[in-house]
Amino acid sequence: MKSRRLIARTIALLLSLAIGSSAPGYVFILDDSGCVSTWREGAIPMLIKLNNSRVLTDGTTEVQSVLAAIQEWTQHLGTVQFVGTAAAPGSYGIWDGTSEIVMDNAIQVEDERFPFDEFVLAVTISFDDGNTTSESDIVFNTAYQWDSFRGGQISSKHDIRRVAAHELGHVLGLDHPDQAEPPQYVEAIMNYAVNYSFGGEELKPDDIAGAQQLYGHPGFVPTNDDFEEAVAIVVPEEGSSFSGTNVAATSEAGEPTLDPDDPGGKTVWWSWTATAGGTLTVTTLGSNFDTLLGAYTGTALNTLTQLALNDDVESGVIRSSTVTLNVDMGTTYYFAVDGWRGTVGTIQLNFSIERDPLRSPPFFEPRPTSRNIIEGTNVSIPSGVPHIADATFEWRRNRMLLSQQTGPSLNLPAAAISDSGAYQLTVTNPRGTSHTYFHLRVVPSDSTLVLWGDPPSSLPEISEFSPVSSVNSTGSVIAWVKADGVIKTSGFGSAHQITGEGGYVEGSFQSEHGLALREDGTLKGWGYTQIGVENIPAGVAPAIQVATGRYMSVALRANGTVRSWGTLVGIPQPNGLDDIIQIAGASQHVIALRSDGTVVGWGRNDNGQAAPPTGLGGVTAIAAGGYGGDGGGHSLALRSDGTVVAWGTNWQGQCNVPVGLGDVVAVGAGDNASYAVKGDGTLVAWGAGSHGELEAPDQAGDFIKVAGGDLFAVALVRPVPKEILSEPADLTVSVGMTASFSV
After folding, report:
1. Residue 208 CB partners (closer than 8 Å, separation 6+)
2. Is 260 exposed, middle or buried (0-12, 13-18, 19+ CB in 10 A)?
3. 703 Cβ neighbours under 8 A, 6+ residues apart
4. Per-residue pLDDT tens over the stretch 259-307
5. Per DSSP, what are the bridge partners of residue 326?
6. Residue of 65, 80, 225, 42 lying closest to 138 (CA atoms)
7. C-alpha distances in angstroms, 273 versus 280, 298, 329, 330, 565?
8. Which of 206, 253, 259, 539 has the most beta carbons within 10 angstroms of its beta carbon?
9. How distant, in Å, are the alpha carbons of 45, 132, 218, 726 from that of 345?
10. Whole-prediction pTM value?
11. How far apart are CA 535 and CA 528, in angstroms?
């Protein structure tokens, strides 16, 4: 069935163009089902019925100027090429299969003529056969004076070349990025208004990227065009989406047809080896063209077994495709995506699996999440494994095996502070082994915070410090979570104005942004949108720990992987991190503790702060500090024997671990100072101390956790019980007398 589309866009004057995100902003002209129409491979003939004799400001004619715009687009296109041909000025036909560029004082649609809307310089009228564009006519409004020039506008004249370039983008299928939902503020000739600033007549990278999404670049062929080159994918337990394209794809000899009534011919391939048995659903929802989808097993085209085929989820209405099939662990499956009647576009391939516990390695529904616990509470944490009959369970805390914990739940009667730590659960059944991770923090019911050095001036009443479950400090900000799950912050900056909401486990805040972990493993961010609430990556939850740097956020997931977002220069995050039990972040570097007791780092490494010492092992806890504006930063590692190792910037002795230091149970780092909590609850500090950073208050109590900031430190402590130092003396008093007693 044929359809028509009229595109009329207002062209206003701009002296400059606001530039926003550097991310792609191009958008496509989509129909009601979310599909884009594109031209078939080959030439796009354009008959240019404009004046070819009047010389314009830049020395060209109208025809020559439009041909220049055509050439500028064509040099960037792969599967199609504009071919412009000059013709005598005149009218244009509708639905006659000829694409024309003309001048007119109205818009012709079938047998009717409509006036241009106010301020409209030109329109593009396109006609589709299904999702294949068959004709596009560009009409310039004769109500305006047309010229051809570079740079700023000349009097009230308009540049036909840059307007032609804009309209040719519509011919290709591009729409206005700054009128998208939500608007995309990028530098582009496809923006709603003509840009008469310097260079405004040129195609921008965003324009070119958008066109190449639809037609590829010269010489482009998808890497997975052939069955033998199928892209192998790994689908995580929560499912995942994968992107691709069938632009410039071909059909191999012997390739199966995905629809008995449609030969297709633009097929690309993916492969996936099942890591569990169950029911798999694959869809192309999110693709921008009418897809065909097939699922197969086999090792070559001539040995494939068809498992499922689909054209539309709902015929002619929801034109994405979906297949559901039973899968067996260890079997490799192949998935082919084609376009209905050979259409092409951007592919989104979505995978989700409902695992069968009797045919799968152990899995967790749900995974245990991090939590804060009051000392003395009876705790039982289920593994979340749905089928336990043939499974064995191994629980570890801070990498040490808990030999008494062998069941499907972690049981801690009357939890003690020593039960705090990073937990790892390993579950094994005859089909495989799986791991999950979480943190527990056990604190006294009367726990509180103490601060020393030069802390932020905007501290709340001391009642806000008790009872406390966790505390973090970075730079000039303190973040703590009270026993009722309410998160609090204090310090410099406006990004941490928290409203007192509850349900949190921990938080990490910089002066301009922050990230907090909820009890259910989800996250909330504040501050810079690049690294805060709006851009928390999908699929991070459930997380078990968070950290922040100056311009970045990091989350440790319950499956032992790490997700980072924002900006962090230096050493990139290593690939394949899937066994991490703890993370620590400073301003511009991150370190992570693996389940085998080794440490890995990334980010700024000017002084070796992100490069753990060679041979470092047996680590049970880590900390990182340093503002990093000048490349500074240092890292600490607590080993299983109670000793501490430090590395990185040592300008103020923050890496000079005191000789003989041992029996350490926790470590913390400030910008230029280091801290160790010993088993007897005392604190040892070293490094910068000019602002009192090393001088914890006398009688502060038993230290549990310590964190350092810029010029201060903060600790979670158990207060020292009050002691009666002397008995009051007996007194004999008469009625009406006043007596005083002291202890």
Report:
1. 76
2. exposed
3. 666, 677, 681, 682, 683, 696, 715, 716, 717
4. 888 888 999 999 999 999 999 999 999 999 999 999 999 999 999 999 9
5. 279
6. 65
7. 12, 12, 8, 6, 29
8. 206
9. 21, 11, 16, 86
10. 0.82
11. 9
Mean of pLDDT values over 119-128:
90
In one-letter notation, the amino acid at residue 442 is: V
Of 707, 586, 574, 637, which Cα lies nearest the Cα of 398? 637
pLDDT per residue over 351-391, tens digit each?
999 999 999 999 999 999 999 999 999 999 999 999 999 99
What distances in angstroms separate CA 138 from CA 104, 169, 203, 211, one per listed residue?
10, 11, 18, 18
Going by pLDDT thresholds of 50, 70 and 90, the confidence category of residue 330 is very high
CB atoms within 10 A of CB 389: 7
Residue pair 83/46 in contact (Cβ under 8 Å)? The answer is yes
Report the run of H or E that residue 5 belongs to, with start and end. Answer: strand 2-8
**Residue 698: other Cβ atoms inside 10 A:** 6
Q: Which residues contact 107 (CB under 8 A, 6 or more apart)?
A: 6, 8, 113, 114, 115, 116, 123, 125, 139
Residue 382 is classified by DSSP as: E
Q: Tell me the pLDDT tens digit for each residue of 452-501.
A: 988 776 565 555 666 777 777 777 788 888 888 888 887 766 455 566 67
The pair of structure tokens assigned to 390 is 């043939």
| Poorest-pLDDT segment among 251-255, 349-353, 472-476, 562-566 | 472-476
Check residue 130 and give left, alpha or beta (phi > 0: left; psi -120 to 50: alpha).
Answer: left
CA dihedral 312, 317, 319, 320 (to 10 degrees): -80
- Enumerate residues 6+ apart whose C-beta is below 8 A from 249: 221, 222, 225, 266, 267, 268, 344
**Separation CA 3–CA 102 (nearest Å):** 22
pLDDT over 70 percentage in the chain: 91
Q: Does residue 682 contact residue 696 with C-beta atoms inside 8 Å?
A: no
| pLDDT for 718 beyond 50 | yes
Amino acid, res. 427: V
The tally of CA atoms less than 13 A away on the side-chain side of residue 356 is: 12
Which residue's structure tokens are 């922050």? Answer: 514
685 pairs with which residues across the strands?
Answer: 675
Please tell me the predicted confidence (pLDDT) of residue 470. 77
Distant-in-sequence contacts of 185-188, Cβ < 8 A, 24+ apart: 185/18, 185/19, 185/20, 185/21, 185/25, 186/19, 186/20, 186/21, 186/22, 186/23, 186/24, 186/25, 186/26, 187/17, 187/19, 188/25, 188/26
Helix and strand counts by DSSP (H, E) for the chain: 3, 49
Q: Looking at the predicted structure, is the pLDDT value of residue 202 above 50?
A: yes
Nearest 5°: the CA angle 510, 511, 515 is: 40
Element (H, E) at 63: helix 62-74
Residues written for the chain = 743
Given the structure tokens 């400001």, which residue do they identify? Answer: 57
Question: Is the distance from CB of 704 to CB of 417 less than 8 angstroms?
Answer: yes
CA distances from 4 to 31, 95, 468, 503, 658 (A): 10, 9, 65, 53, 79
Long-range contact list for 408-411, CB < 8 A, 24+ apart?
408/382, 408/383, 409/380, 409/381, 409/382, 409/383, 410/368, 410/379, 410/380, 410/381, 410/383, 411/379, 411/380
CA gap 436, 425 in Å, rounded: 5
CA-to-CA separations, 523 to 45, 99, 300, 483, 532, in angstroms, rounded: 53, 52, 45, 19, 10
Longest pairwise C-alpha distance within the chain:
125
Arithmetic mean of pLDDT, 386-399 = 95
